[in-house]
């Protein structure tokens, strides 16, 4: 699930995605392209979630959180009775991970740094969501310093993202 | 000529063209060379079946007039102004350089200064018809070379005016007696200015109401006749005052280019241009003095090749000085190396003035004709060499958008529907090519300073003229279901690359449009009706966002129904029976609505907490202890 309202002028997220296309095991779902009016098709999204074993969320950090459409997607699609609650088993055992890009550098995301907390802290709500839905949570892929990420640094980052994804997929049987 | 003779001659000319041109194109020589060769073959020198070539030639020269008229239509004054450096800079430099070189050569060969200079002027001209046709054939009209050629040719055409005035004066100075008409020079000058003013003011003021009147009558052939009438009239007026009729036609075309009738006129006149230009090239071929060629082949050939080399060299230097890339400079220089049709006219004009030696004035037209024959070959050769040398080096240069001002989007039908989509696109900085048949509509839109073209969008030629070859999107917003369907069919067949977005009147029409090849259809009343429904929900007490979401779900539900009921074949029995279809589809819709699941219950499930709360109250507990996913 990719959530970036201006993927057209994104440097980092677009470059990361470009590395993924062509991998037959990965389906990229561009949320802002699919639901420009925020009118999410709940049934279709639930069917999509059921279809995959590994679910990744790729987004730039906005206000220390996910972009609003991604949150809307959680609100509408991850319903009680589907994602969690008594007898809800649609997501049980699946893998959930985040790939986040940030504007600040690595040094600012730590206790005492400019942003005060680590990325892991800020991603706690999603981690808890995974736990509530009895999913397996993986350490996030974090790309700091996005505004200054270009050229060779960006290519290296894209490669490491590919590596990260392969790791996620290899943990899954067949 | 008797009528049977006319028919026989027409038959010969057409037959020669029909046979020779496809062969020439197949062999890779191009249509222009094909026409010239056909002419030479049927001309007096070979088969001699052409009759009076000179008389035919006069008719054929009208092809050049129409060519310039059409070029004028496409060139708006602003564009001309932007091109001023090309026209007055490059054009003047070309004339100057060529004329200097040839004058010097002439003097070296023993001509007097006046004779050498006059000859240089005759030879400096290039053939507008030949260059423009061959550029068009190669699709290079808007390329860098195309624009430069056009600027130079335009300057040459304009410089004909002072030439006709100056050369007779030279002969007076040389003491050989003046020869123009009989009017004194200043009076002639006034006549010229008056005629030009008449063309500009006349076409600007009188022609538009006339065309509007004719267009309102709805008769197409009358429209064509009126357009031809205009061109013939302007040409006659120009000939009367001794100006190049082609130049007059160019000016008239430019004035008309700013009106809404531009496209319609252009495509109505286009066939005449093609035919007459072909005829012109045939007469050039037929006019080759084969007798002279046989006995003084060396003189004619060396004259032709000599001046072509001189022109190519001079032009190359000039265009390099104007910072053209090397390859562009070569292409440009080779393209303009031939002599022009103006040479034939001017040689006979100066004959009575006795400026040129008698022998030379017989050699010159032959040499120019030979150069016209050689020119396509030279271009071909040049192209081969360039292609060979640049193979795999560079792609085609992006075309300059200024020249024809291409637009990405064509809006067919700019009524109540097309306007909204069109305005959204314009507000985001996209140029539109608008087509509409309603004169009143055009009048309104024009008053807001937008480009609109009068014309029936279902006509392929007009669609092409509106830029369908290069546009990306076609919006079909015509106010008539049958016409819209026809347009989609036409456009789909002719322009597979176009994204066709169509306005549908009802479901049946929508399915028909999709079957005809539309990429996307939008029902004309659907969205607004849905929004009124949403507004009603709000008035009934729904909170805004819930009403909004309900409408959105309803839309999704309808979309999926639309897909589900889409007939496999457009002619599927029952569905398209016009009388029943509308009723049937409404009945179908209402039935579907009764059994819909997602459209109604779905909206209640959004942000629903009842399930969770029931679970919490019942004490079964959320799975993980502690936090709850949602709190009311």
Q: What do these coordinates show?
A:
The complex is a heterodimer of chains A (174) and B (632). In chain A, 38% of the residues lie in helices and 11% in strands. Chain A is of the alpha/beta class. Chain A has a single domain (13-166), classed as Rossmann fold. In chain A, strands 1, 2, 3 and 4 form a four-stranded parallel beta sheet that branches. In chain A, helix 4 links the parallel strand 1 (54-60) and strand 2 (95-101). The longest helix of chain A has 20 residues, at 151-170. Chain A starts with 11 loop residues before the first helix and ends with a helix. Helices cover 70% and strands 4% of the residues of chain B. Chain B contains 28 helices and six strands. In chain B, strands 3-2-1-4-5-6 form a six-stranded parallel beta sheet, with helices on both faces. In chain B, helix 14 packs across helix 17 (358-390) and helix 16 (342-350) packs antiparallel against helix 17 (358-390). Chain B is elongated. Chain A binds chain B through residues 37, 39, 41-43, 75-76, 79-81, 84-86, 128-129, 131-132, 134, and chain B through 549, 552-553, 555-556, 598, 602, 605-609, 611-612, 615, 620, 622-624, 627, 629-630.
Output the keywords.
heterodimer, A: 174 residues, alpha/beta, Rossmann fold, four-stranded parallel β-sheet, 7 helices, 11% strand, globular, B: 632 residues, mainly alpha, Na+/H+ antiporter like fold, 2 domains, six-stranded parallel β-sheet, 28 helices, 4% strand, elongated, disordered C terminus
């Amino acid at each position: 699930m990719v959530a970036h309202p201006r993927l057209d002028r994104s440097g980092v997220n677009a470059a990361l995605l470009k590395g993924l296309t062509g991998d037959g095991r990965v389906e990229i779902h561009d949320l802002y392209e699919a639901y420009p009016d925020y009118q999410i098709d709940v049934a279709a999204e639930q069917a999509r979630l059921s279809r995959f074993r590994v679910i990744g969320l790729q987004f730039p950090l906005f206000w220390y959180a996910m972009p609003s459409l991604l949150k809307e997607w959680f609100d509408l699609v991850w319903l009680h009775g589907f994602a969690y609650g008594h007898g809800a088993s649609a997501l049980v055992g699946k893998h959930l991970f985040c790939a986040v890009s940030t504007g600040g550098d690595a040094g600012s995301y730590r206790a005492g740094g400019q942003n005060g907390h680590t990325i892991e802290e800020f991603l706690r709500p999603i981690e808890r969501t995974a736990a509530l839905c009895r999913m397996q949570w993986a350490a996030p892929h974090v790309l700091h310093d996005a505004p200054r990420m270009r050229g060779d640094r960006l290519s290296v980052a894209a490669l490491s993202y590919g590596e990260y994804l392969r790791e996620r997929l290899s943990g899954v049987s067949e | 000529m008797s009528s049977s003779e006319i028919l026989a001659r027409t038959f010969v000319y057409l037959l020669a063209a029909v046979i020779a041109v496809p062969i020439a194109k197949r062999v890779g020589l191009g249509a222009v060379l094909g026409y010239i060769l056909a002419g030479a073959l049927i001309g007096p020198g070979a088969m001699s079946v052409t009759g009076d070539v000179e008389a035919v030639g006069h008719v054929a020269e009208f092809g050049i007039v129409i060519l310039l008229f059409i070029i004028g239509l496409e060139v708006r004054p602003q564009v001309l102004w932007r091109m001023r450096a090309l026209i007055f800079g490059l054009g003047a430099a070309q004339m100057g350089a060529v004329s200097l070189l040839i004058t010097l050569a002439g003097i070296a060969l023993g001509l007097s200064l006046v004779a050498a200079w006059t000859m240089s002027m005759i030879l400096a001209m290039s053939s507008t018809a030949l260059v423009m046709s061959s550029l068009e054939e190669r699709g290079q009209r808007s390329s860098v070379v195309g624009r430069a050629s056009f600027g130079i040719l335009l300057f040459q055409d304009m410089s004909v005016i002072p030439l006709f005035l100056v050369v007779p004066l030279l002969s007076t100075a040389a003491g050989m007696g003046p020869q123009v008409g009989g009017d004194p020079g200043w009076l002639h000058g006034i006549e010229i200015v008056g005629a030009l003013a008449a063309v500009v003011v006349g076409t600007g003021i009188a022609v538009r109401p006339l065309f509007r009147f004719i267009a309102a009558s709805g008769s197409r052939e009358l429209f064509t006749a009126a357009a031809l009438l205009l061109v013939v009239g302007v040409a006659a007026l120009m000939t009367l005052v001794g100006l190049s009729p082609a130049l007059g036609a160019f000016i008239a075309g430019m004035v008309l280019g700013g009106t809404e009738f531009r496209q319609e006129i252009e495509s109505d006149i286009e066939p005449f241009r093609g035919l007459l230009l072909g005829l012109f090239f045939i007469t050039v071929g037929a006019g080759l003095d084969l007798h002279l060629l046989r006995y003084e082949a060396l003189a004619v050939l060396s004259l032709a090749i000599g001046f072509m080399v001189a022109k190519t060299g001079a032009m190359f230097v000039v265009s390099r000085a104007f910072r053209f890339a090397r390859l562009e400079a070569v292409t440009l220089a080779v393209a303009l190396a031939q002599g022009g049709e103006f040479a034939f006219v001017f040689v006979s004009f100066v004959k009575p003035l006795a400026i040129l030696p008698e022998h030379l004035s017989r050699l010159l037209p032959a040499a120019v004709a030979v150069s016209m024959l050689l020119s396509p070959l030279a271009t071909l050769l040049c192209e081969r060499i360039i292609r060979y040398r640049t193979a795999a080096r560079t792609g085609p240069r992006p075309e300059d958008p200024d020249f024809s001002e291409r637009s990405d989007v064509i809006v067919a039908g700019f009524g109540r529907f097309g306007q909204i989509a069109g305005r959204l696109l314009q507000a985001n900085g996209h140029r539109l090519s608008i087509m509409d048949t309603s004169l009143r509509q055009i009048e309104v839109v024009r008053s807001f300073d937008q480009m609109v073209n009068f014309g029936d969008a279902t006509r392929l030629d007009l669609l092409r003229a509106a830029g369908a070859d290069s546009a990306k999107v076609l919006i079909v917003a015509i106010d008539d279901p049958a016409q819209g369907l026809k347009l989609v069919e036409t456009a789909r067949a002719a322009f597979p690359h176009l994204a066709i977005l169509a306005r549908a009147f009802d479901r049946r029409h929508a399915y028909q449009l999709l079957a005809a090849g539309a990429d996307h259809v939008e029902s004309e009343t659907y969205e607004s009706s849905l929004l009124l429904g949403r507004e009603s929900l709000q008035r009934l007490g729904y909170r805004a966002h819930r009403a909004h979401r309900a409408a959105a779900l309803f839309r999704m539900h309808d979309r999926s129904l639309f897909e589900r009921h889409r007939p496999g074949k457009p002619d599927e029995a029952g569905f398209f029976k016009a009388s029943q279809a509308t009723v049937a589809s409404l009945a179908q819709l209402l039935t579907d609505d009764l059994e819909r699941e997602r459209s109604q219950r779905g909206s209640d499930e959004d942000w629903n907490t009842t399930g969770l709360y029931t679970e919490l109250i019942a004490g079964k507990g959320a799975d993980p202890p502690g936090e709850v996913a949602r709190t009311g």
